[in-house]
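Prompt: Have a read of the protein record below and flag anything odd:
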Amino acid sequence: MGKQYAERDAMALDMAGNYYCRHVGAMTEEGLHAKSDIAAELAWRDMEIDRLRHANRKMKSLIDEVIRADWRTNDNTLWPRLLAVGRE
């Protein structure tokens, strides 16, 4: 497996929105000192990012379908499906 973690500029991350120090503070406060604890948190975030990306792709697909829909037809399933993705 190739290297997954690049060198990051902590100062730039903080200047962009306090991303680094906020996490260091939270990890210290919550006692996340072991690599396994931090890896579990990163894994959960990866899973959440994947879920959101999937929902985003699904929403884009449904929006495209709505845009292409022939409004003279009686397809009443598009809007409820679009709204359902937003609630997932």
